[in-house]
């Protein structure tokens, strides 16, 4: 099966330009609130998909290990500089469409600001589900096409695409907004049960961000988030799901599997070699590289 196109962040200064040097303290703070509300108290191993430079990783307290996955090696290098090396973090360069893990090795996963780069979200969600144990928690954030701003623009004929229609809208190359009902359907088909939805970033409006104190905006958004099960009209939605159905128990002691042929891989840095298909995967500066077309 052909691999879907990947939004390439290699060499990008995303963390600096988007978060550190731009006025996004509000967005960051309200995401922290949503994560606090949705995260389980702790667990063994959490999979962070599209981890980028590890902006959210310190929020996953209570887990013995966090495995950061990103397709960009330079993003993970930044994450490693920020978080350090150590047994509690694993840095894994891999494609979400070809995850390099044995089935059922994670008891939690998050995917924040990443689904919006997926041209084939169903396929990505199937991969996530396969890596999770039964009853594992999965927190998914997605960009909502049916938000108040897009509705207004549509009504005023400033936007051609319909925010109420179920299909994704690709507003820039490999940047998609999704309809909340469509995402819920995909989650169900991928064997997830939706437990709770939070709507996030209601006040992502430059004028409000300029004029109101940050703590007011965060307090207002924290309150508005709690209506997320009733309606979803904010630009960002967080969904807490549980892995439904059964998953084959992870074979004891294994974490990695060959992303090409799925055979379990011995964890033998500086190179992991697949005994089944012969491919090998380098480990450099604590960063595992499972890209199939590196
Ligand atoms: C907008 S950034 C979000 C980073 C982080 N989650 C945050 O919220 O700060 C999206 C990340 O998804 C990663 N990404 C995009 N497509 C991917 C894929 N197919 N497999 C793995 N990572 C991918 C990018 O490299 C990028 O680091
Ligand atoms: Zn193999």
UniProtKB/TrEMBL annotation:
InterPro entries: Methyltransf_11 (IPR013216), SAM-dependent_MTases_sf (IPR029063), Trm112-like (IPR005651). It comes from the Bacteria. CDD domains: AdoMet_MTases (cd02440). One of its GO terms (molecular function) is S-adenosylmethionine-dependent methyltransferase activity. Residues 47-139 form the Methyltransferase type domain. Coiled coil: none annotated. This is Methyltransferase type 11 domain-containing protein. It comes from Levilinea saccharolytica.
